[in-house]
Each structure stands twice: as structure tokens, then as C-alpha cells.
Amino acid sequence: MLHLVCFALIALANAFANPGPCIGDCWTHDPGLYQRKSDGRYFRFATGGGVRLSSAPTITGPWKAVGDVLPGGSKIDHVGSDNLWAPDVHYQDNTKKYYMYYSVSELGKKNSVIGVASSDTMAPGSWTDHGSIGLDTANNPPYNTIDANWIRIDGTPYLNWGSFWQNLFQARMENPLKISGDAPRQIAFNGTLNHRIEAAFEFQHGNYYYLTFSSGIGGNYDVTLPAQGMEYSIRVCRSEGGKGNFVDKAGRSCLESGGTTLLASHGNVYAPGGQGIVQDKILGLVLYYHYADKNKGLAKSQYQFGWNRLNWVDGWPTV
Ligand SMILES: *[C@@H]1O[C@H](CO)[C@@H](O)[C@H](O)[C@H]1NC(C)=O
After folding, report:
1. First vs last Cα of the chain: how many Å apart?
2. Which of 108, 180, 256, 278 can pair with 172 through a Cys bridge, CB separation 3.0 to 4.6 Å?
């Protein structure tokens, strides 16, 4: 009986909202989303044989594919420099520029470099490549160097990155184009199975910094369907300082496999992940992600752009 009650509570807690509407070009994979300061126009960056760019007047669309960010690839001399991944975009007031971090990597290998490009407008054709930020796996560090995520903490810029291996790390940025020499800190680790967490995205709200990540198996689910519950889901941890000591809602350390589920498969929504948070001028904090729509198909080429406004309960975000 107690088990039944527990099940009912879990079912209730997992009643996720469906994604908000999307009109037009709604394909995406590992999206990065940013609203332009000047006119509020949205730009959506995605991984798909390079960094693909789409644009829309509002988050609901109509979305239009507008081109590639660095169509010629990166100037970094490394395998994968013609196939950039995992875009992360932010704006800096001091330089009045947008910066996009990207990964150059050999799929599934710890053989990677993080690079950066900048632009005044985010529009295609406006991006200048600056190459490596000085973060790579050449000396066989404990981490992989993909999935960059920039964040300002107490006025100081930091970068989160990682994925698989020893999972998520953080270090201070010297400037937007260069990582500092400070020793990287591990900020999240799932000790079980293959350490399947990736795609850090951190943001601030109220008195806390929130660290979101994708947990589980991502990929072409039309080729291999993971056991139920092992597919991608979006997790969240929080910390007061933003630089470590992240815990989940149950108080479990996120260095010890903690991480509260923010969004998981439900209804036709399968394996949401590759998430980020954007501050919409009207809606406030919005979670965005990719997911497979069971009605449309499970391949990466069929992934859909999802978004939900965040609600807050006892200092924790919910969807
Ligand atoms: C950690 O990994 C295990 C095994 O893959 C998984 O069941 C669990 O949900 C993961 N937890 C987090 C917070 O990623």
C-alpha cells in the first residue's frame, strides 16, 4: 500500500507540461538560444554538420533556418574542425559582442578542443573565429573538453564544460577568448555506470545558482532504443556560491550522483536534453531543449525544439 501511495506521488510530481508552441523550422539538436539585445529577435544555434543558425521574432516562431555560423569550420588544427558542436552563446556589455563557444572533437573520444567565435549581431556572415580558448585534452586531463557553458558569478566570468569521463568541470575565464590558468574544479559527477552526464548549463535565480545537465543516453533513438528511463533527461542541482557544493532537492551532493529531474520523457515527448535557459523579455526564465516527438520520429534529424517557462516551488524550478 505504501508503495502504491509513493507511486502515485511520483506520478504526480512527474506531470510535466508539454513544450510551448513552435512554428516553422522546429528541428534542433543541442540548442543554444539567445535573444538579441537591440530588437529582441531570437537566434537558435544547433549541432548538425556544423553550427546551424535559425532565427525568429519570438520564441514561438515563425522560425527560419538562416545559415551556418562558421560555414568553413574552425581554424583550430584538430580532427573535427569542419564539424563544430554544442554551441553556447552569451553577450558581453564591455565589448558589445556576442560570443559563441563551440566544440571540436572526435565523436565519443576524449580528443577535443573548445573554440570561440564572436559577432556584433549574431546574424550569419557576421561571425569571426578566434580559435582555441586554450582548453583541450592534449595532456590527457581527467575531463573531456566539449559542451562549454559560460556564466558570470559575482562579476567574474567562468566556463563550465566536461561530459562523460569525470563529468562536469569549471574554471575562471581570463577574458572571453581565453581560459585562465586556474586549476579546473569538478562540479558534478555521476559515479554510476558510464558517468552519463553532459551539457552543463548554469544560471542564477534568487539566492542560488542552478546547474542543469543532461543525464542518460542521447543519440539516434531510431537505431538504438535505450532501456526505459535510461534515455536523456534534464536534471538540476543548486548552490549558493555557483562554484561548487551543488546539491539536489533531496540534499544529495551532485558530486555523488545527485541531480533532481527537471524534465524527462512524458506523453509524446521522448528524451529531452541538450538544454539551456534563456531570459525572455516577456516570459522571464525559459527552459529550452531538444526532444524526440514520438509521432514524428526518433532520429536526431527529427528532433524538435522544446521550451517551457520555469515555475518556482520552494526555490526549485519546475516545468
Ligand atoms: C546517474 O546514473 C545512473 C545510471 O546511469 C542513473 O540511473 C541516474 O539517474 C543518474 N543520476 C543523475 C543525477 O544523473
Report:
1. 29
2. 180
